[in-house]
Amino acid sequence: MRRVHVVGNSGSGKSTLAASLSGRLGVPWLELDSVFHMRDWTPRPVGEFREEVDRFTAAGGWVVDGNYSAVRDIVWARADTVVWIDLPRHTIMRRLLRRTLHRMATGTELWNGNRERFRFLFQKDESILRWAWIQHEKYRERYRQAAEDPANAHLRFVRVTSREDIGRLLG
Asked: Quick one: which of 49, 81, 87, 140 could link to 91 by a disulfide (CB 3.0–4.6 Å)?
């Protein structure tokens, strides 16, 4: 395990696990959100996004986290392992609510000057909580199918469904 893609729903712990894996493996880590979201939550143009990810994943070892289909082909062509965090919906929603409210209350900067705002909770297209709720089953099905797809036979899929699984992975 030297080139790892960590995927899963918002609030599942992708970045936390990716940072830990990066340290354990002694390889750099890239959080795709930090590349995609420019100032004022402006999406990076797809071509530029792909170029950044292409450059990063050209190295011999790395950890990438995020679910962006625009770069999945690049990442998976070079990855040896996909770690799929598949925690129960209620666990993710509890974690995400706590994390989001904390970030909002403290004004924590995420990437490129972006911050989560209280108004985002109530805006249909901005609510991370709504997004995570809706995406939960979609991600579960996407990664279940990907793990079974012969086109991905070069990848080792590691499905993480509990805190104990994370502990064993980081062992």
From this structure: 87
Cβ neighbours of residue 35 closer than 8 Å, sequence gap 6 or more: 44, 49, 52, 53
Which residue carries 């992975």 as its tokens? Answer: 169
User: What secondary structure, in 3-state letters, does the chain show?
Assistant: CCEEEEEECCCCCHHHHHHHHHHHHCCCEEEHHHHHEEHHHEECCHHHHHHHHHHHHCCCCEEEECCCHHHHHHHHHHCCEEEEECCCHHHHHHHHHHHHHHHHHHCCECCCCCECCHHHHHCCCCCHHHHHHHHHHHHHHHHHHHHHCHHHCCCEEEEECCHHHHHHHHC
Query: Measured between alpha carbons, how far is 46 from 17 in angstroms, rounded to an integer?
Result: 26
Number of C-beta neighbours around residue 49 at 10 A: 19
Neighbouring residues of 124: CB distance < 8 A, sequence distance ≥ 6: 130
Residues 44-81: tens digit of each pLDDT: 999 999 999 999 999 999 999 999 999 999 999 999 99
